[in-house]
């Protein structure tokens, strides 16, 4: 059971910090600001990822081909090009896709 929930929706959380972050999606509060371009974000980790645009940092490396990425999720999708993994399957025709968005477009 998740005992904490906010006044704006029925979503519930185990930790008050998670509820607080979620409530920003309703309030529009964006307390984390990029010092380079002043763009603001509701979560610190999103600001950190954004800042890689300015620094060019790519901390995630494919162990197969050594290509580098600024975001872990992008690396995971890329790795499917090596493994052939297609975790998203159309329920109608059973065709598999490597990305959820490709299934949605299908």
Automatic annotation (TrEMBL):
Swiss-Prot/TrEMBL keywords: Metal-binding, Nucleus, Repeat, Zinc, Zinc-finger
Domain of life the protein comes from: Eukaryota
Its GO CC terms are: nucleus
Q: Name one GO molecular function term.
A: RNA polymerase II cis-regulatory region sequence-specific DNA binding
Query: In this protein, which residues make up the domain named C2H2-type?
Result: 4-31, 32-59, 60-87, 88-106
For this chain, the family text in UniProt reads: Belongs to the krueppel C2H2-type zinc-finger protein family.
In Swiss-Prot or TrEMBL terms, this protein is called: ZN583 protein
Q: Does the keyword Nucleus apply?
A: yes
Pfam family name, one: zf-C2H2
Instruction: Please name the taxonomic classification of the source.
Output: Eukaryota, Metazoa, Chordata, Craniata, Vertebrata
Q: Where found in the cell? A: Nucleus
Species this chain originates from: Centropus unirufus
Q: Does the keyword Repeat apply?
A: yes
């Amino acid at each position: 059971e998740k005992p904490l929930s906010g006044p704006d929706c029925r979503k519930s959380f185990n930790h008050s910090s998670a509820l607080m972050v979620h409530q920003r999606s309703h309030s529009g509060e964006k307390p984390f600001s990029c010092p380079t371009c002043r763009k603001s974000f509701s979560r610190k980790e999103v600001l950190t990822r954004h800042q890689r645009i300015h620094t060019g940092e790519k901390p995630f490396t494919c162990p197969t081909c050594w290509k580098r990425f600024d975001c872990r999720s992008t690396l995971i999708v890329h790795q499917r090009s090596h493994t052939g993994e297609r975790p998203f399957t159309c329920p109608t025709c059973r065709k598999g896709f490597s990305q959820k968005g490709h299934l949605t477009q299908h």
